[in-house]
Specification:
The protein has 437 residues and is mostly helical. It has one domain: MFS general substrate transporter like domains (Growth Hormone, Chain: A), CATH 1.20.1250.20. 81% of the residues lie in helices and 0% in strands. It has 14 helices and no strands.
Length: 437
């Protein structure tokens, strides 16, 4: 997960600023970044369905993960190494091909990887521990990515720094991401149990009432939370006047997120996943909303608010995918199929579509506010930055908390689902034994 988080979060955090401040492309380049994320989201369902239906000696998921490795490395390097001779539309085209190519490879790896995680355990709370550790590992990579952003942004030659990072990514990405693709086993009993066709697969997802609520909450939460990665460099440099804190301030958020996870796991076991996640969404909303009061040199206030937001957001990072795995069990009860790939794809679509929307919204808003790179900003541009950074998460997380009140697949209901699935599996095993005899 470290090798997965570093490149994706480095791109999410730095590519718009790299394009505007180093390559001197207009802020509307954010529209292209957003389009690439939307493409990333749109391609998820195809990969999810295909990985559900894949049969191979390695299983359903791992062949896709292995195939993605050289593409991830190559397009990541391409993104940070555009030839100095390129400019204008040709440079935009180069960056667009690199972005869309990288996110296509990202989908090939991310959807099967997430689906594989959903298959590792059938336990209601053990799933939370698995995805909590996955989240912790991802956050470790995010910290490394922020450090890389800090170094690249403050380097004397930012273009040369980006080239060095691109070359490093070519080596480290496949070296780390090959580990689960080669060594994590899959459940043999799940092979060949995906939906017969993609339309049926995603119709089942859409007809699952628990899935509809969760997926909409993921979309809303991601729409608000995405501002941290996109706007943190701008807020540090132009609102605080402290470009040296580009990595430090978001690190307060991610460190608090990691440290809070044991607490959220205990609370979820005691009070239930749904209830504690709703509490956490409200806490995240209030913490982000408070950043509207941050001004020049108020870095301690911003660090404190981001620590609070990170503490609350750690709950969703640990629990949301665990809840999705429970929903997949409910789908098996209804359909008799195992569609981890389809559900992971739709969850990824919700997350990525929201992230793409955040980037496009940011690029358009900055352009409309009169933002100019590398100079002191106008009051309109500053308030646009602050309004997006505080207002989008505040609104989105409160809506998410309200919507999640309708979710009803709690621990008792999931236990009933698992008991029926186990009864069916036992009956099928007995029938197979009689046939063999």
């Amino acid at each position: 997960m470290v090798g997965f988080a570093v490149p994706i979060f480095f791109i999410q955090t730095f590519v718009l600023k790299f394009a505007t401040d180093v390559l001197l492309l207009p802020a509307t380049f954010g529209i292209l970044v957003g389009v690439s994320r939307v493409w990333d989201a749109v391609s998820d369902p195809a990969i999810g369905y295909l990985s559900d239906r894949t049969r191979s000696r390695l299983g359903r998921r791992r062949p896709w993960m292995l195939a993605a490795l050289p593409l991830l490395a190559g397009f990541f390097a391409m993104l940070w190494m555009p030839p100095a001779s390129l400019s204008g539309g040709v440079l935009v085209a180069w960056m667009g091909v690199a972005l869309i190519g990288f996110y296509s490879a990202y989908t090939m790896y991310a959807v099967p990887h997430n689906a594989l995680g959903a298959e590792l355990s059938l336990g209601h709370h053990e799933r939370s521990r698995i995805f909590a550790l996955r989240h912790v590992s991802f956050i470790m990579g995010v910290v490394v990515a922020f450090a890389a952003v800090q170094w690249a942004n403050n380097a004397p030659d930012r273009r040369a720094a980006a080239v060095a990072l691109g070359l490093g990514g070519m080596v480290l990405i496949p070296a780390l991401l090959a580990i689960p693709a080669l060594f994590v086993s899959e459940r043999k009993a799940h092979q060949g149990r995906g939906a017969e066709n993609p339309r049926a697969a995603f119709r089942d997802v859409g007809q699952n009432p628990h899935a509809r609520v969760l997926l909409f909450v993921i979309f809303i939460e991601s729409l608000g939370g995405g501002v941290l990665g996109v706007l943190a460099p701008y807020v540090a440099e132009y609102v605080l006047g402290r470009p040296d804190l580009i990595a430090l301030l978001p690190s307060a958020y991610v460190a608090a997120s990691v440290l809070s996870i044991p607490l959220w796991l205990r609370l979820a076991r005691r009070f239930g996943k749904r209830r504690v996640w709703r509490w956490a969404m409200v806490g995240t909303a209030l913490s982000f909303g408070g950043t509207i009061f941050v001004g020049q040199d108020d870095w301690l206030l911003l660090a404190a608010l981001l620590t609070g937001a990170g503490t609350a957001a750690g709950c969703g990072g640990a629990i949301s995918q665990s809840i999705l795995a429970d929903i997949i069990d409910y789908d098996e009860l209804r359909t008799g199929q195992r569609k981890e790939g389809a559900y992971s794809a739709v969850a990824g679509f919700a997350f990525k579509a929201a992230a793409g929307g955040t980037v496009m919204m940011t690029g358009v808003a900055l352009s409309a506010s009169g933002f100019q790179p590398n100079v002191e900003q106008s009051p309109t541009a500053l308030w646009t930055l602050k309004g997006l950074f505080a207002g989008a998460p505040f609104t989105a997380y409160l809506i998410g908390a309200w919507l999640f009140g309708r979710f009803s697949l709690d621990e008792a209901e999931h236990a009933r689902v698992r008991a029926e699935l186990d009864r069916r599996a036992g009956a099928q095993a007995s029938a197979d034994d009689r046939d063999a005899t």
